[in-house]
Specification:
Strand order of the largest sheet: 3-2-1-4-5-6
Structural class: alpha/beta
Helix content: 40-55%
Radius of gyration: 23 Å
Low-confidence stretches: none
CATH architecture of the largest domain: 3-Layer(aba) Sandwich
Catalytic activity: UDP-alpha-D-glucose + 2 NAD(+) + H2O = UDP-alpha-D-glucuronate + 2 NADH + 3 H(+)
Keywords: NAD, Oxidoreductase
CATH superfamily of the largest domain: NAD(P)-binding Rossmann-like Domain
Bound molecules: nicotinamide-adenine-dinucleotide, uridine-5'-diphosphate-glucuronic acid
Strand content: 5-15%
Number of helices: 18
CATH class of the largest domain: Alpha Beta
Number of strands: 14
Organism: Arboricoccus pini
Largest sheet: 6 strands, parallel
Shape: globular
EC number: 1.1.1.22
CATH topology of the largest domain: Rossmann fold
Protein name: UDP-glucose 6-dehydrogenase
Length: about 425
Amino acid sequence: MRIVMIGAGYVGLVSAACFAEFGIEVVCVDKDRHRIEALRAGRMPIFEPGLEDLVKRHVASGRLGFTFNLKSALQGAMAAFIAVGTPSRRGDGHADLSHVFAAAGEIATALSHPLLVVTKSTVPVGTGRRLAAFFAETRPDLKIEVAANPEFLREGAAIEDFMRPDRIVCGIDGSGAQALLEALYRPLAQAGTPLLFTGRETAELIKYAANSYLATKITFINEMADLCEATGADIEVVAKGMGLDGRIGGRFLKPGPGYGGSCFPKDVQALLHTAREQSVPLRIVEAVEAANAARKLKMVSRIVAACDGKVRGKRIGVLGVTFKSGTDDVRDSPSLVVLPALQELGAKLCVFDPAGMEEARKRLPGLTWAQNAYETAQDATALVILTEWEAFGSLDLDQLKTLMHTPVIIDLRNVLSPAAARARGFAYHSIGRPK
Ligand code: NAD
Ligand code: UGA
């Protein structure tokens, strides 16, 4: 069986390599020539644990190939997955479907046989129907079915999530699609993963509902953390106590500087846009979006307060720019709000991140970039932890203290132990834990 994966980004590349692992022949197509050339030369365009080994193994097995030529890739393929970006549209914040429809247009031009087109990208409800209408109009001579197969992987755990998902959701509108998708996902179904077949609109909405629900859970715990700070309770224990209730579950109850990343912020916005179009109020999701945006700015005030109310001219060390650990992705990271705001207030920032600095340099001009975590602490008035990289949790606090001008840590991810930091003489501020 042979398929085409359009888009060699976080979702496309991981999905292509994992389908190859299932024994399927996959041709991964990207319009970015540099990306394809890098992949052909064995270089990964993104940082994702385990990806390089998996890709190299399946290039060697002959089941995974890379090209920018969609026409040749489509020859003999039974399905084409669209895994291109759907960022926020400038102006109104709805999902920008220009890449999806560009890919569809290229398929319509290049295709010479019947095909199943599957959206793996996150697309607003109704997109599958629009794509089906588009193919019916542009290629009435061919049977082109359209299915929605939203992806639920997380960056940093992408391969594990793809290979051991909680469920696979397939939205279909036709008989051929189900049999083909069942065949593609057979190894996972055999391992016990539920395959949920639904209508296309339902599948599309499941994806947005799931992401918005997870964003809600995070925002809820962040507000509870504020209440813990006001009352002397400990958010880590509150979250544990809540999470032990099986109806709530302990995951996604980690407080922090607000959710970021290439998906939650844009998907929450797109869902709200869909709801407004349909005149259906989503009051909870509206509140989540507003609370999360406000939270990122609140982190700035918190840092300023920990620096005695003033950061102008002060050197501040910053650990982490990626939106979470385990990825090089800085899209919609809290750092993109917090760091420019501190710069604006006159702080001199020295920043380190184990994986995200290359991309962050392009988006955050005017910062000093360090080679390692200790360098950021040199002469610093305060050290801010913005991303929960494991290595930041095991820094040598004594060494940091000798390097710093003033021993102040603002740990926005609760990676350090308050007792250990305070025992070494730090003024230690964290999220939702007793002072
Ligand atoms: P990405 O930006 O990392 O990758 C998209 C790739 O598609 C790029 O390499 C780009 O060059 C390529 N591309 C764009 N148009 C193309 C075309 N016409 N032909 C060939 N290639 C083309 O994006 P991503 O993070 O992988 O996200 C892709 C989709 O998956 C989005 O809809 C996103 O919401 C969704 N999603 C992402 C994640 C995640 O963790 N990143 C998880 C689940 C779902
Ligand atoms: C998220 C979802 O978890 C995936 O299921 C989904 O497929 C993906 O979006 C998508 O649609 O693209 P991802 O953005 O990679 O995955 O990362 P998450 O681990 O969900 O983290 C998102 C943000 O929430 C990060 O900023 C993270 O720091 C924050 N977060 C997460 C918390 O603050 N607390 C938590 O308990 C969990």
